[in-house]
Sequence to fold (110 residues):
Amino acid sequence: MDRFWESDFPTPRAGPKPLLEAHAASLLFMIWNQDRLFDIWQAKDSVTTTVEANGYGVWDLRPSGRCLCLELSQHLSEEAAIGLSFQFALTADYWGEGGHGSVFRLCWPE
Fold:
C-alpha cells in the first residue's frame, strides 16, 4: 500500500487571487453537496432569469452555505428590492447595498 507524505503535496503559493479563491470555494461547495448540485444549477438559472426578466443584471451569484448570495449590478430603492425579493422561487431576504448593487440572500427550505 502506498503511503503519502506531506512532502508529496504541493505547497500553496502565497497570496492566491481572490477570484480563484471564490471559484475554488464554489467548486468545493458543489463537490461536498453532489446530491444538491442540480438544485444549485437550477436555482442559479431561476434567479438569473427572474433578475433579467425584471430588467436588472446579476453582478455576482455564488453559493454561501445553504444559500445563494446575489449582488445585482444596480442599486435599487428599498421598495423595489423588497418587491423583487417576493418574485424569487427561493426564500429571499434583501440584505442591503453592496459595492456594485443591491444584495440578496436566497435560501432553500430546510
